[in-house]
Structure formats: C-alpha cells, structure tokens
Amino acid sequence: MALSITVASGKGGVGKTTISANLGVALAQFGKDVTILDADIEMANLEGMKTTLHQVLAGQAPPSEAMYVGPAGVKIIPAGVSLEGLRDADPDVLESVLEELMEQTEILILDSPAGLGKSAVTSLAVGQELLLITNPEISSMSDALKTKIVAKKLGAHVLGVVLNRAGTDATDLTIEEVQTILEATVVAAVPEDSEVRKSSAAGVPLVIKAPNSPAALAIKKLAADLIGEKYAPPVTEKNSFVKRFIGGLFGGR
Ligand SMILES: Nc1ncnc2c1ncn2[C@@H]1O[C@H](COP(=O)(O)OP(=O)(O)OP(=O)(O)O)[C@@H](O)[C@H]1O
Ligand SMILES: [Mg+2]
Description:
It is a single chain. The chain is α/β, with parallel strands linked by helices and 253 residues long. The protein has one domain (3-250): P-loop containing nucleotide triphosphate hydrolases (Rossmann fold), CATH 3.40.50.300. Helices cover 42% and strands 17% of the residues. The protein contains 10 helices and 8 strands. The protein has helices at residues 16-29, 53-57, 91-103, 118-126, 138-153, 175-182, 194-202, 206-209, 214-226, 237-250, and strands at residues 3-8, 34-37, 68-69, 75-77, 107-111, 129-134, 157-166, 186-191. It has an 8-stranded mixed β-sheet with strand order 3-4-2-5-1-6-7-8, with helices on both faces. Helix 1 packs across helix 9 (214-226). The longest helix is centred in the middle third of the chain and has 16 residues, at 138-153. It is globular. The structure holds adenosine-5'-triphosphate and magnesium ion (MG). Adenosine-5'-triphosphate is lined by residues 9, 12-18, 114, 164-165, 190, 192-193, 196-197, 200, 215. The site of magnesium ion has 3 residues, from helix 1.
C-alpha cells in the first residue's frame, strides 16, 4: 500500500504546488517511486500530456494513460482542469481512481486545492498523511487550522506543518508560535528564496535547477526525514575553500 500525502493549506498561494513538485522530485532522487497528482507546473512536456485525470474520471481512459514521467523519474498526473474544477466529478469515482493509482506507486502526493471546497475535502479524505503548508503570517493561521481540523476528522494523520517563505520579515511568526497556534509540529521551514521564482520561470524544478539553494536544501531535508534517510547538505563554498586551503598547506587534496 502506497503512502499518500496530501499537501494542503487553508489560504491559497502559500506554496503547495512548489512544495508538492519539489518534494516529489526530491523523493524520486532518493530512489522512491513517486506520483504527483496535479502539480500544474513547470514539469517538462506539458503539451504532450493529452490524457488527464479529467478523462480518467469520465471513464474515457485508464489511470495509467494519464501518467507522465517527469524529472528524476517522478510520475505526474495532470488534472487537466484544476482539481477545483473537478468538483463535479463523482467523489466515489475519484476515490476509486486514486486507490488504483496508489497501487501503482510508492508515494502519492496530492497537490490539494486551497480551502475546503469539495475537491479539497476529497483530497484530504484520500490522503493518509497531511502536510499543512503555511506562511509565517497571522492571516494564514485560522484557515490552516480549519484545514487541519477537517483533515483529522476525515481520518488523516497530520505529518506536520511546512512553514514556507520563512524568515523575511520582523513581523513573521516564529516556528514556536506557529506550532502553538496550529497545535502541530513544524517539520520544515523553507526560507523565502529568489531561486524559487527563477526555477519556475525556467520550467525546471528548484531541487534540480538550484539544488544547493536554501529552499531546495530545506525541501530535500524534509524528503529525507519523511523516508527516514539521512541527508547531509553538500559542503558550502566556504567549507570547500577552507578544505582546499588546508589541503594546499599540507599537500593533501
Ligand atoms: N520559498 C519560497 N520563496 C520564494 N517564493 C516562493 C516560495 N514558495 C513559493 N513561492 C512563490 O509563491 C507563489 C505561490 O506558490 P505556489 O504556486 O506553490 O502556491 P500554491 O499554494 O500552490 O498556490 P494555489 O493555492 O494558487 O495553488 C509562486 O509564485 C512561487 O514561486
Ligand atoms: Mg497550487
């Protein structure tokens, strides 16, 4: 049985798609068989993606036909329309399709729509694990809390909170404050990072385009933690300079 993780938030625009896509690619880089549902992003080859979840739900294609291979071998299923746009889909059909997908992969990541509409609730109900994405601002908190409560009622286990775009402002909530308000552990703090936007513009996932950027490092660490792997960030420029310097002094390399 696959591990299914719903990446959800209360408020929109907090970084669900960014985290879903890059966490998926990072997990694939660790050798996991990962499927991402509707990371409607920068993944290569979008124009080649003719069959989508939309057709699958309409019974016009089997789920396997809507699966595309992306960076690092991650499998992507485009929704075709936004998941929100699938609100007319029969939730029973959606659930059985998702169950079928889970049989074909090790980790299924559901990039949930914001809020608590029908399709968001469906994805909260289907995912066993909830990763709650939030920004360090008061205005994100009450909706995030609502999402967490609904997910728990639906039987999801709260993996934790990802505090995204952390550390930019003096008015930012601290990790401790977020944990207190949401009554959940912050499992990753992903800093505000200009590389996120750059990689998005380049159409390449951040963890591939800028693997040593602060946000990519935080997401790779989260991926490692989720699957119980150790992740040692690469030596920084400064360290490697020191090493080279010492190596030079003592004749080593
Ligand atoms: N850590 C970060 N640093 C800088 N910019 C970021 C970061 N995370 C996300 N962004 C930017 O914030 C914007 C929203 O991110 P994203 O699309 O991932 O959010 P979302 O929660 O999926 O939005 P929606 O609710 O609309 O689906 C994007 O422009 C993205 O590039
Ligand atoms: Mg999104």
